[in-house]
């Protein structure tokens, strides 16, 4: 169905010089399905022609109609850029060929039931529209026109879209910020991480045109937090999720270095640490976690760090170069920092209470394989011990003393011993907090207080994958989805979360990917070679596979994620036989089945 909308603006109205707070023309208001939406015509021209500049368009024959079977994908070259051509259910589709998140080749991903899943980090895109349906990442794929003539497949595409390989969804803007009281907002988002940003963007994408305010203790606009430990010398502007202009364009206000001290849910008022108060209609709490600190003598000493900001990461790299580094805690952060500093520091020592890193998460065998990789890269482990004292010389760190009696030379100490939810300010609010400090939400990310939602690392929520068990999943991908679900339900969509957890870590050029929720697993079935770091680990509980991890076996984790997302049960007995063989052959036909 092609819909053409003609907009006629009276001459008298055109002459008015009404400007929005960001200096652009006031938004045009029109209705879609009875819902008022507000867009700037200059930024989103309403037209039936998706290609505004004929010189920006390229059209090319890319293959014969019989070259692709159903369920196949092919990367095709249009001369000035590439596209991903897909055939499913007898129809051809063409979208961008790179994942907008980190640029993964989607042709190596997983195609299933109308969407393609990224092989690296699990983001999912609708093959008909290009829209992002699961995360991480913020942008969608560009969609290109496909036509069939004389049994040849042609793609017509914008040259610019072929070059950028990403598309930002159409978004609304605020009607007029000048009409608002500075101390009131329709939506207040506490926290400016992935959950908070995706919530704000989703509201705008859904046509929400009222005021949105985000507040953060950080001094920066939202940034790619996982890179703080994976790429420690990145500057804030290099890892920004959106440029400053984006927030101005779409009227998303961000208050930096602003900490909320209390929330009065009855009066719908957030009280900031400096005494400022802001009224809200809807509230999202996405404050994340706060890193745990050491409890030993000397913990406040100079050159002892928790990696929380880009400045922390940059400072550690600068101080650690050609120096002695001690890392306390074989957590994801601790291990990633150790890997990053191994080639830069004179020595890297890692102290851990367990006898194998990642044992609770990946199991002992995988943990030992990872530990061996670190040892081969000059990282020294001190296991089953803790720090008893940090010693200084002239006010700076000199030595780390372990309870085992060992004394380690140290110029820098990085602490990665876990985190606690940043929810202390909610203790007297009436919002339901569990015994560990996590905010309890339902499948729609709603708290027990009407109009108050929570998302990200600070919440426990019902995980469909594990029979709606309340879990905490403190990972980047899940925070994105939490933010989207919260936004949709602020708008009364009634959308429930059903995503499969997906995470990754990168160390010494090796990417370890993981999908599912393996908490409480009782066995690990290994396929491949752990010593060669080319393996797949299936985590089982009773007879059911609940999670999978791999190194150098892409896109197997994304394939398992698709199976789990489809609601199918993978039995332990299937891992060694038909199930694993289907990965080796690339046969995805079992994805279309039902049940187990």
TrEMBL record:
<protein>
    <recommendedName>
        <fullName>Apoptosis-inducing factor 3</fullName>
    </recommendedName>
</protein>
<comment type="similarity">
    <text>Belongs to the FAD-dependent oxidoreductase family.</text>
</comment>
<keyword id="KW-0285">Flavoprotein</keyword>
<dbReference type="InterPro" id="IPR028202">
    <property type="entry name" value="Reductase_C"/>
</dbReference>
<keyword id="KW-0053">Apoptosis</keyword>
<dbReference type="GO" id="GO:0016651">
    <property type="term" value="F:oxidoreductase activity, acting on NAD(P)H"/>
</dbReference>
<dbReference type="GO" id="GO:0046872">
    <property type="term" value="F:metal ion binding"/>
</dbReference>
<keyword id="KW-0249">Electron transport</keyword>
<dbReference type="InterPro" id="IPR036922">
    <property type="entry name" value="Rieske_2Fe-2S_sf"/>
</dbReference>
<dbReference type="InterPro" id="IPR016156">
    <property type="entry name" value="FAD/NAD-linked_Rdtase_dimer_sf"/>
</dbReference>
<dbReference type="Pfam" id="PF07992">
    <property type="entry name" value="Pyr_redox_2"/>
</dbReference>
<feature type="domain" description="Rieske">
    <location>
        <begin position="60"/>
        <end position="155"/>
    </location>
</feature>
<dbReference type="InterPro" id="IPR023753">
    <property type="entry name" value="FAD/NAD-binding_dom"/>
</dbReference>
<dbReference type="GO" id="GO:0097194">
    <property type="term" value="P:execution phase of apoptosis"/>
</dbReference>
<keyword id="KW-0411">Iron-sulfur</keyword>
<dbReference type="Pfam" id="PF14759">
    <property type="entry name" value="Reductase_C"/>
</dbReference>
<keyword id="KW-0560">Oxidoreductase</keyword>
<keyword id="KW-0496">Mitochondrion</keyword>
<dbReference type="InterPro" id="IPR050446">
    <property type="entry name" value="FAD-oxidoreductase/Apoptosis"/>
</dbReference>
<dbReference type="InterPro" id="IPR017941">
    <property type="entry name" value="Rieske_2Fe-2S"/>
</dbReference>
<keyword id="KW-0479">Metal-binding</keyword>
<keyword id="KW-0274">FAD</keyword>
<comment type="function">
    <text>Induces apoptosis through a caspase dependent pathway. Reduces mitochondrial membrane potential.</text>
</comment>
<keyword id="KW-0408">Iron</keyword>
<dbReference type="InterPro" id="IPR036188">
    <property type="entry name" value="FAD/NAD-bd_sf"/>
</dbReference>
<keyword id="KW-0001">2Fe-2S</keyword>
<dbReference type="Pfam" id="PF00355">
    <property type="entry name" value="Rieske"/>
</dbReference>
<keyword id="KW-0813">Transport</keyword>
<dbReference type="GO" id="GO:0051537">
    <property type="term" value="F:2 iron, 2 sulfur cluster binding"/>
</dbReference>
<dbReference type="GO" id="GO:0005739">
    <property type="term" value="C:mitochondrion"/>
</dbReference>
């Amino acid at each position: 169905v092609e819909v053409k909308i003609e907009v006629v603006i009276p001459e008298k109205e055109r002459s008015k010089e009404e400007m929005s707070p960001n200096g652009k023309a006031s938004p045009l208001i029109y209705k879609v399905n009875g819902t008022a939406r507000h867009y700037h015509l200059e930024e989103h021209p309403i037209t039936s022609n998706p290609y505004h500049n004929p010189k920006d368009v390229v059209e090319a024959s890319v293959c014969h109609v019989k070259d692709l079977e159903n369920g196949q994908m092919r990367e095709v070259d249009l001369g000035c850029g590439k596209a991903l051509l897909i055939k499913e259910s007898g129809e051809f589709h063409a979208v961008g060929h790179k994942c907008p998140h980190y640029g993964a080749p989607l042709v190596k991903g997983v195609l299933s039931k109308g969407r393609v899943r990224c092989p690296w980090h699990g983001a999912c895109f609708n093959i008909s529209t290009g829209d992002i349906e699961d995360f991480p990442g913020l942008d969608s794929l560009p969609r290109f026109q496909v036509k069939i003539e004389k049994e040849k497949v042609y793609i017509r595409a914008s040259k610019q879209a072929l070059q950028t390989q990403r598309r930002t969804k159409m978004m609304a803007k605020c009607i007029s910020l000048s009409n608002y009281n500075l101390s009131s907002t329709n939506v207040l988002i506490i926290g400016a991480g992935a959950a908070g940003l995706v919530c704000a963007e989703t509201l705008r994408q859904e046509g929400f045109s009222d005021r949105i305010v985000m507040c953060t203790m950080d001094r920066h606009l939202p940034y790619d937090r996982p890179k703080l430990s994976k790429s420690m010398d990145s500057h804030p502007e290099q890892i920004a999720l959106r440029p400053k202009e984006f927030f101005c364009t779409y009227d998303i206000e961000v208050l930096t270095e602003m900490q909320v001290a209390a929330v009065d849910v009855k009066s719908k008022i957030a009280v900031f640490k400096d005494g400022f108060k802001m009224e809200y209609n809807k509230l999202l709490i996405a404050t994340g976690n706060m890193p745990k600190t050491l409890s030993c003598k000397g913990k406040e000493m100079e050159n002892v760090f928790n990696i929380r900001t880009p400045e922390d990461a940059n400072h550690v790299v600068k101080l650690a170069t050609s120096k002695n580094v001690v890392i306390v805690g074989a957590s994801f952060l601790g291990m990633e920092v150790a890997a990053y500093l191994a080639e830069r520091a004179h020595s890297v020592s890692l102290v851990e209470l367990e006898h194998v890193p990642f044992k609770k998460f990946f199991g002992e065998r995988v943990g030992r394989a990872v530990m061996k990789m670190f040892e081969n890269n000059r990282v020294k482990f001190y296991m089953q011990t803790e720090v008893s004292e940090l010693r200084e010389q002239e006010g700076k760190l000199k030595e780390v003393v372990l309870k085992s009696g060992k004394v380690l030379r140290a110029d820098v100490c990085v602490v990665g011993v876990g985190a606690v939810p940043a929810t202390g300010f909610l203790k007297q609010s009436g919002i339901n907090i569990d015994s560990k400090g996590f905010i309890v939400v339902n499948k729609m990310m709603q708290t027990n207080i009407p109009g108050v939602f929570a998302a990200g690392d600070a919440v426990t929520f019902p995980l469909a994958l594990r029979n709606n068990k309340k879990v905490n999943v403190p990972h980047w991908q899940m925070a994105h989805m939490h933010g989207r679900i919260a936004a949709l339900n602020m708008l009364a969509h009634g959308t429930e979360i059903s995503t499969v957890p997906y995470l990754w870590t990168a160390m010494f050029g090796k990417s370890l990917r993981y999908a599912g929720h393996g908490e409480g697993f009782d066995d690990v079935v290994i396929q491949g070679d752990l010593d060669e770091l080319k393996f797949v680990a299936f985590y089982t509980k009773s007879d059911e596979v609940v999670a999978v991890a791999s190194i150098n076996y892409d896109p197997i984790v994304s394939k398992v994620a698709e199976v789990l997302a489809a609601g199918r049960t993978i039995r332990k007995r299937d891992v060694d036989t038909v199930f694993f063989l289907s990965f080796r052959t690339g046969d995805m036909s079992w994805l279309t089945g039902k049940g187990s």
